[in-house]
Amino acid sequence: MQDPGSKIYICGLGDDLIVEYDLSTPWDISSAVYNGNFFDPTTQGQPIDITFNLNGTKIYILSYFDDTIYEYNLSTPWDITSATYSGNSKNISGQASTPYGLDSNANGTKFYVLQYDGYIYEYDLSTPWDISSAVYNGNFFDPSNENTTIQGFSITKDGTKLYTSDYDTKKIYEYNLSTPWDITSATYSGNSKDISGQATQPTAVILPRRDGTKMYIIGHINDDVYEYDLSTPWDISSAVYNNNELYISNEEYNPYGIRFLTGIPTKPRSHGYIF
User: Fold this and answer.
1) Region class of 190: left (phi > 0), else alpha (psi between -120 and 50), else beta
2) Residue 201 has pLDDT above 50, yes or no
3) What total of structural domains would you count in the chain?
4) Is the sign of the CA dihedral 37, 42, 43, 49 positive or negative?
């Protein structure tokens, strides 16, 4: 199995591509090198965000222009050049007519979509990882008390933490979910992080490490990814920019979505998994 953190994927609306980078030092984006792999999904939709299943055999693409989630199979895990459309899709315009973000739970029974107005909507999948079986379950979360213009979000893989990136306030906000994976149970933790020194207009936030010690932000205007270390796991108020960044404009400009090769967890742990 490939090492967790050894690949990073970026999608954007500049060239409407998904591009893949190899990291010689896992989780260190300053070691990232574009490996030439890219995928153009515009026959189905233009990608504003993406997510994978846990073993990298499926990729899900959120289309900004037709408000649809598309499901693709990867014949070679984590290699986006091997992606083929599965035929499964889910139109979410009934809730998110201008979608900006996408995430899922660890076992593929729930998906979440961020709408332009800041609402995050929750869907149940009767067949895990089959996006065509997704049904909106009536749950949504409105974090507007803290945020003004949300452009991205992510949920930890144990479903107890949610993070949002705000385009206008230039901050990341942290929420606790008292009932894992139920976004109606989300409450603001009081923790936030001003990242205006790096990403003046952030479009994505992700904490992909299973120990909660790394945070990554996309800077929309500079076409950069920025890396932060967290001295207190999962507490973004403890995040410090470590000067690692990845400039991606040569491969995809106007970036919005980010994902890492995370691998398959083997042992559950508070706020995530360890390997």
Assistant:
1) left
2) yes
3) 1
4) positive
